[in-house]
Each structure stands twice: as C-alpha cells, then as structure tokens.
Amino acid sequence: MRKKIVAGNWKMNTLLKDGMELAKAVEKLEKDKQSDALLIIAPPYTHLSRVNDLIDNVKLAAQNCASEESGAYTGEIAPDMLVSAGVEYVIIGHSERRSYYHEDNELLNKKTKLAISKGLKPIFCCGEVLEEREQGRLFDVIREQLTVGLAGLNMEDIKQVVIAYEPVWAIGTGVVATPDQAQEMHKFIRDLLIELFDKEVADNMTILYGGSCKPSNASELFANPDVDGGLIGGASLKAEDFLGIANAY
Ligand code: 13P
To answer: Could you tell me the distance, in angstroms and rounded to a whole number, from the CA of residue 231 to the centre of ligand 1?
Structure first.
C-alpha cells in the first residue's frame, strides 16, 4: 500500500506568530482526521524549529534546501541544518523555484541527492506550463524533469522520494486539472518510474497532485487510482480547509 499524503506548502506566507498558531491548529485537527493520510506542513525557514516544537503527528517539511553541504554560500540553508531543526521532508523543484530562481533540472538533481544523503525525504515537484500542454509537449517536459531530476538515485534513494505533479497553469489560478488530466499524467509518471527504476518502485511511489486543490474538488482528484494525495498551497493556510482536503479520501 502506498502512503497517502496531504502536504501544505505555505510558501512565503505567515509571520512567525501566525505560523505557530496555524501549526497548532493543524496538529489539533489532525487528531480527528477521518482518513489515513499523513499530514505534512512546509512553513517558511524562519518558523521551522519553533513549529517543530508544536507538532507531533503532523510532519515537518522545508520548502527548499541548498545544493551544497556547508560553507560560503550566503543566504543558503543546508540539508544538515534542516535536519537539526527537526525537518523530515523537503520540497525540491517547485515551479516557483524553477521559474523565479532559475533552478534547472541538473541543480535540482544535485539538491535531491544531497538531501537524501543527509536523511531528508524530497518531495520532488514537476509540472508543465500551459504553452507546453497546448503544444502537446507535456509528457516530454515531465519525462525530462524526472529523468534528469532523479538521475543517479539508487533503489534505496528513490524509496525516500515523494513526487508531486503540479501543472503550472493550475497553481494559484483557481483552474484545477480535471480528474482525467491528473490521472493521465500520474499514470504516465508511474510508468516512467518503471522505466527509470522498476515496478516495485513505481507501485510504491506516492504521487501527489498540486494546483488549486480545495476541499470541494479534492475527493474527485483523490478518487483516481494513481493520485495518492495533494500538495496544497492556498488552502493549506486555513487549518479547516487543509484538514477538509485530508478528509476528502
Ligand atoms: P495552490 O494550491 O495555491 O494552487 O498552490 C499549489 C502549490 O503550488 C503547492 O506547492
């Protein structure tokens, strides 16, 4: 059985006090959760260690990490530092990192390998922009992102990874992928994992959908056989909505 996950990417939102309140509220509601989905929250870096003291059943993720171990990299946060703050998961390759900060597939591969070597579990993101979908290049784009992004991972490494498919045109737009569009791409990703690794890896991989996911549309997305949960942006900033999505299973 694959692990079901609902992960909240808070992005650059909440001040420390609000973030701590939100984390407390998520942990509280988690107790009454009506599904077996694992809940993960990814607050901004500045909140991580304080939030870690407030959660127990809910797991902690960072939104990014450095591609280098330590040293003169002003402004960067190393995977080891995240581990020391109680972080278990790390989002790598979010489309906002790819587009605004020019993180390419090679750099993301380096981050992924380093993160795993330090004991973090990457939530590796992929997704096409609207133009790529309209031009029918969506599968080529995802193939490239995953083939390069996950290159060099051995059979043990890949077991630490969660994949998130986030079509860029659905992120923060209110335009959600249809259940068929999500299933089609998730199936493609699972088949690609057979090619890149093996069937056992593919069968056990948790593949999340992200992009305008809300309590009202989560059940039909999660009803797909290859959709194993969600990576949630806006709706993760309200504990009730976030739990509403988790309860959509
Ligand atoms: P929204 O849920 O706000 O569309 O964001 C999705 C996302 O980017 C999660 O990483």
So the answer is: 7
Inter-axis angle of helices 215-222 and 239-246, nearest 10: 20
Residues 196, 197, 202, 206, Cα dihedral to 10°? -90
Please identify which residue in the block is written with the tokens 């909505």. 241
Going by their DSSP bridges, the two strands 229-232 and 5-9 should be labelled as: parallel
Q: 43 CB less than 6 Å from ligand 1?
A: no
CB contact at 8 A, 229 and 4 = yes
Condensed to tens digits (0 to 9), the pLDDT of residues 107-158 reads 999 999 999 999 999 999 999 999 999 999 999 999 999 999 999 999 999 9
Alpha-carbon distance 41 to 56, whole Å? 12
Residue 236 alpha carbon, nearest atom of ligand 1: 2
33: how many CB neighbours lie within 10 A of its CB?
17
Q: What pLDDT, on the 0 to 100 scale, is given for residue 58?
A: 98
SS3 call for 73: coil
**Dist CA 218 CA 38 (whole Å):** 15
Q: Which helix (H) or strand (E) holds 91?
A: strand 89-92
In which residue ranges of the chain is pLDDT below 50? none
Q: How many CA atoms lie within 13 A of 142 on its CB side?
A: 25
Give the residue among 235, 188, 192 at the shortest CA–CA distance from 211: 235
R_g of the chain computed on alpha carbons: 17
Q: Are 63 and 11 in contact (CB under 8 A)?
A: yes
- pLDDT at site 149: 98
Regarding pTM above 0.85, the answer is: yes
CA distance readout (Å), 158 to 118, 150, 224: 14, 8, 23
Q: Which residues are catalytic?
A: 94, 166
